[in-house]
Amino acid sequence: MESNGTPAYTFLDRLHCKLFKVELVVQRGLILIAVSSSREAESFKEQGNAYYAKKDYNEAYNYYTKAIDACPNNASYYGNRAATLMMLGKFREALGDAQQSVRLDDTFVRGHLREGKCHLSLGNAMAASRCFQRVLELDHTNPQAQQELKNASAVLEYERIAEIDFEKRDFRKVVFCMDRALEFAPACHRFKILKAECLALLGRYPEAQSVASDILRMDSTNADALYVRGLCLYYEDCIEKAVQFFVQALRMAPDHEKACLACRNAKALKAKKEDGNKAFKEGNYKLAYELYTEALGIDPNNIKTNAKLYCNRGTVNSKLRKLEEAIDDCTNAIKLDDTYIKAYLRRAQCYMDTEQYEDAVRDYEKVYQTEKTKEHKQFLKNAQVELKKSKRKDYYKILGVDKNASEDEIKKAYRKRALMHHPDRHSGASAEIQKEEEKKFKEVGEAFTILSDPKKKARYDSGQDLEEDGMNMADFDANNIFKAFFGGPGGFSFEEHKVSELQLGSSQVIKPKSIQNESRRRSMWCLEMLVCVMSTV
C-alpha cells in the first residue's frame, strides 16, 4: 500500500480501463467502417447491375470491380464480374473470377455454373462437366446445369470424331465437327486451330488465314496459329514467307512436330524446284525432268506448287518431244489447279503439235474465257483454223507427199496416183471398187490442181480457202487434168491397152499381151507413158 492508504494497483487498473475504452472505440469504428464499406460495395454492385441491364458491360465491369475493392470477400461480386467478362468474351479472365467466387462460397450455384460455362467456352469440356455436376449436387433439378452437361458431352463427342477423321484425312468432316463444337466453345483456340489447319489442307486458304490471324491478334506467341499461317503461305506457293512463320513457331515451341516437318518440306521443295529450273535453263532437260519428279514426291498436299511442277515437267517433256507424256503432265497440273492458265496453254500447244485440234480448241477457249487477251484470241483462232483444215480433204495425203514437197515431187506423185486410180484400169473390177477408184481418181486430180498452182496452194496452206468457202471446184474435171498432164491426143484407155506383165528395171522391156489394131502413133505414146510412170515408182 502507498502512504495515503490507496492500493498500489489502482494505476494499472485505470490504464487497463482506458485501453479497454480505446479498444471499444476502435471496434466500433471498424464496425462502422465495415458497414460503410458494405453499403458502398452494395451501391457499386447496384450501379453495376444497372449498367449490365443496359448491356454497357465495360461500365458494369468497372463498378463490380469497385464493389470487390470495397468488399473483397463477397462471392456474388466476383460472380457478377465473371458474368460481365463472359459477355465481353473474356472467358479466361471470367474463369478466374468464377473460381474465386466458389472458393469464397462453395455453395454458390451461379458461381459453379459460370465456372463451368467458362471451361466449356474455352474447350475444357471435362472440367466443365465437373462444375455442372457440382451444381446438380447442390440443386439436382437445376435445368441449366442439366442442359450444359449435355452440351459438354456433345463437345467431347465432336472432339472424338474429329480426331478419328483427321487421321483418315477426312478434313471436311473435321471442319464440320469443329464448327459444331465451336457453337458451345467459341473461345477455344485449339478447336479453331484444328479447323484452320483442315481448311488449309482443303485449299480454303483465305478462310484458314482469317482464323489463324484472329488468334494471333489476341496471342502473337501462339505457336499453333503461327504454324497454320505458315501452312497457308506454303500451300499458296509463298515458300520463303512460309518458312519464316515455321521458324517463328519453332521459337515459341521448339518441339512443335508439325511446324518442324513443314519447315523441312518447304526448304526441300524450294531447293529441288530451283535446281530443276536451273537445269532447264541450261538445256539439261533430262536432269530437269529428274529433279521435278523428285520435287513432286516431297509433299502431295502442296497442290499449287505441285501443279507448277507438273507443268514444268510437261514443258520438259515437250522439249524432249515426248508430247503424250507432256499432255499427261499438263492434265495432272490442271486437275490440281483448274485455274492454271499456263498449264492449259502448254497442253493446247501439245495438242496442236499432235494434230489433236478439237482438244486444242477446247483448251484455248477455256484460256480465252478466263483471260480475254489479243494473244489468247489469236491462239484460239489458229486452232480453229487448223481444226477446219483437218476436217477438209488432205491434198498432201491424197498425193502421198509432205507439206514441203517441191513442184517436181508433186508432179511425180500425181503421175503415179493418177495411173493407179484411173477408172479404165479397174474396168474389170466390181461396181463398188470401180466407184471407189473413180472417187480417188477425182481426188488425185483435185489435189494436183490445188498443189500445182502456187497461189491456190498458198491459200490452201494458210486456211484462206476455208474462209472463202473452199476452192470452188464445181467445174473441175479429173479426165481433162489427166489428158492435159499426159499430153495424149484424146487420152488413152486401159481397156484398149491391157498390160499383163510389167517388170521394173531400166534394162527390161514392157511387153504388151495383146495390142489391138490402132495407129502406131497411139500405141507408141501409151508405151512411153507407161515407161515414164514405172521409172518414177
From TrEMBL:
Domain J: 394-464
Keywords, in A-Z order: Acetylation, Chaperone, Cytoplasm, Cytoskeleton, Nucleus, Phosphoprotein, Repeat, TPR repeat
Cell compartments where the protein resides: Cytoplasm, Cytoskeleton; Nucleus
Pfam families linked to this entry: DnaJ, TPR_1, TPR_16, TPR_2, TPR_8
Entry-linked CDD domains: DnaJ
Intervals holding TPR repeats: 41-74, 223-256, 269-302, 307-340, 341-374
SUPFAM superfamilies in the record: Chaperone J-domain (SSF46565), TPR-like (SSF48452)
GO cellular component: cytoskeleton; nucleus
InterPro entries: DnaJ_domain, J_dom_sf, TPR-like_helical_dom_sf, TPR_2, TPR_rpt
Taxonomic superkingdom: Eukaryota
Function: Acts as a co-chaperone regulating the molecular chaperones HSP70 and HSP90 in folding of steroid receptors, such as the glucocorticoid receptor and the progesterone receptor. Proposed to act as a recycling chaperone by facilitating the return of chaperone substrates to early stages of chaperoning if further folding is required. In vitro, induces ATP-independent dissociation of HSP90 but not of HSP70 from the chaperone-substrate complexes. Recruits NR1I3 to the cytoplasm.
Entry protein name: DnaJ homolog subfamily C member 7
Organism: Chelonia mydas
